[in-house]
Specification:
The protein has 193 residues and is mainly alpha-helical. The strands form 2 sheets. The chain has a two-stranded antiparallel sheet. α1 packs across α6 and α4 runs antiparallel to α5. It is globular and about 50 Å long. It has 2 domains: 105 residues, no CATH class; 64 residues, no CATH class.
């Protein structure tokens, strides 16, 4: 298969299981884990208690890789945290120009009555270039929930190979940085498989 770094391969495999829990929350496995580790929240923001099982620690290790690659797609905007989650391709985490609560969701920027972005509010909260990118994002008219997308595959679905490549590239960039040979850290340039 061409996987050489077993730790990164293991993380990519565990990331696949984390992806399944994130995208199929009604599966039996996800329900059991929710009851034990995040009964009042969601998998994306779940904590890792000190007494957690080996399985849960593994899933958290896989989720670390997911968090580096996932882009959230906007549905109703109620799950995506405005300044913590990545939801605009190529921008990473947004930095507003005004103070916003950490737990503010993207729905804050949506005019629910019209089903469009609240253009004035978006322009008030972000610098012009970020605001323009937000306003270019299409909103779904059926008010579906927000959902994760994996931008390193054509279908937007997590694959072990693409996650492994993401982890390898990140390690390579860290190596270059430590050795004073800095390079672009634009993770969006990873080849899609």
């Amino acid at each position: 298969m061409g996987f050489r770094d077993m730790k990164l391969f293991n993380q990519a495999m565990l990331g696949r299981q984390s992806w399944r829990i994130l995208t199929v929350p009604n599966s039996l496995c996800a329900k059991v884990l929710k009851g034990r580790y995040f009964p009042h929240g969601d998998f994306w923001n779940a904590k890792q208690p000190r007494n957690s099982s080996y399985t849960w620690r593994g899933l958290m290790f896989g989720r670390e890789l997911l968090k580096k690659g996932v882009i959230w797609r906007v549905g109703n905007g109620k799950k995506i945290q405005l300044i913590k989650d990545r939801w605009i391709q190529g921008l990473g985490v947004l930095k507003p120009v005004i103070n916003l609560q950490v737990d503010t969701t993207v729905s804050y920027l949506i005019d629910e009555a019209k089903g469009t972005w609240n253009e004035n509010l978006v322009k008030e909260c972000f610098n012009p270039s970020d605001a323009e990118q937000i306003l270019q994002l299409p909103l779904l008219h059926n008010h579906c929930e927000d959902f994760p997308s994996w931008p390193y595959t054509k279908e937007g679905i997590y694959s072990v190979r693409s996650a492994y490549n993401l982890a390898k590239m990140e390690g390579f960039h860290k190596f270059l940085s430590v050795n004073g040979k800095g390079e672009s850290s634009d993770m969006t340039k990873i080849k899609r498989v």
